[in-house]
């Protein structure tokens, strides 16, 4: 079965746009820059790229065959399907797994998105008289729900239907890729301070 990934689409697009921008500027600094200003600009690009990677590109919820994997900025969490308890949404998705509570970085339900969903539910209620039964059922299914609400419902449903396929144990660990990115950026900044 194919893994299903849930994340902020806006963050993902912004993150890759920044990566392209940073790569172009890095090439320009290497080709046309002069020391030490090119090194300082490169360090600034590196720090901003680290922040974009950690906050926009890395966070995701991955529904795997045996469980759900949550990638937050610096940590990874894995919960097998049979250990998933309550999944609910405050401003973020929260997965309860026994004594472990995992707060997912993305997708989040912002106040603006929540207000739009509520307004959409009000408009749907007013126009239901003119809808066919199929349109009415579809409108009721999404009325008042945000993307985070939809993802939380999907995870709850998967935990019930896939509990027999569960593998592994609940674990929350530091992310090697995130820590490596932080370390590389720190080295770049230190080298810049020493040489500039």
TrEMBL record:
Record field: transmembrane: 12-31, 37-57, 171-195
InterPro entries: CFP-6_PH (IPR019692)
UniProt key word Transmembrane: yes
Keywords of this entry: Membrane, Transmembrane, Transmembrane helix
Coiled-coil region(s): none
Segments forming domain Low molecular weight protein antigen 6 PH: 58-91
Domain of life: Bacteria
Protein name per its UniProtKB record: Low molecular weight protein antigen 6 PH domain-containing protein
